[in-house]
Amino acid sequence: MLSTVEVVQVFLARLAAQDATGIARLCAPAVEWEAPTPNGARWALGPRTRREVESQFLTLFATFDLEQLAVRQVVVDGGDAAVFGRARWRVLANGEQVTARFAAVLSVHLGEIEQYWHLPDTFAVAAATGAVRAGA
Prior knowledge:
six-stranded mixed beta sheet, about 50% strand
């Protein structure tokens, strides 16, 4: 069974590799989920199955190409971990580049992610995908 630190390390490696299936395998059968849709326009809340987690990340990776993932800090307290960093993505539909700072909170129990909160700069993401217009 992986520790919280090990789960976070594997999660980040699979995120960097754009491995949606691998990310889903890290999750418990039901994950308490709080994250925006890939275009940043609205929030998806509530429990998700592994298959739904995989689908969410497949949609993310079909929308964006991850060019750089930089983790600034990881704070672990028992089964809870907070990850702070920034990601540079390229929007596949329009070639627009977006750099978004983020915080992610993962709760791990018995080596599986049971709770996932992802808090990115949704305005930067929504502007890059055209979901909102920046400026007037």
